[in-house]
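Hi R.,

Quick one: here's the Ribulose-phosphate 3-epimerase sequence you asked about.
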Amino acid sequence: MNHLIAPSILSADFAHLKQDILMLNNSEADWIHVDVMDGVFVPNISFGFPVIAAVKNYALKPLDVHLMITNPDRYLEDFQKAGANVITVHYEACDHLDRTIHKIKELGCKAGVAINPHTPVSLLENVIEELDLALIMTVNPGFGGQKFIANSYHKIQQLRAMADEKNPDLFIEVDGGVSNHNSLALLKAGANVLVAGNAIFAAEDQLHAIAELKNISPDTFHA
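And here's the predicted structure, written out as tokens:
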């Protein structure tokens, strides 16, 4: 499976969000990653339904919506209606995870589950066969621009081994501190979807930054 690039618009220029979405449409990005935060599950507040719906009006690529919120079940249908193609909930926020996964699929979206840095990969074992995507947070959720947590490589390897046995087509997504400095190592560990925010939107040439992440080879890796 060729890896996917999902630029996180949490790092976009909110005053010129339309222009950034149009730029992503014309880039080598595969998905558009939307981080939804409620100020309760994580110490920050980001996008709501109107912003996601506005993004969907211009986006030509699937919206990968990452819910960092408590009680996500209450809002799943609203996010689907707003334009989500992929909905990822947090393991730590769901009391009845299997039910939540099936609800997402019933809405016609790909179903994902995210785990925080302190959460063991083994806790996904009983649901991994039901998932389209598993997301490993490689920073503590809530803010962009954080330093990558090095232990994440081991967690990605664990998840890849589990997926190879039970769900080989699983998307393994990593979110937090992804850049051209660690992207090759992340792919070698077993990830196949890279979420990048500052590495793209803070770049002088954003299209080139996306292309560099998309076309990774040993020759483009920066140690």
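The helical segments are 17-25, 49-58, 76-82, 97-106, 152-166, 183-189, 198-201, 206-214.

Cheers,
M.
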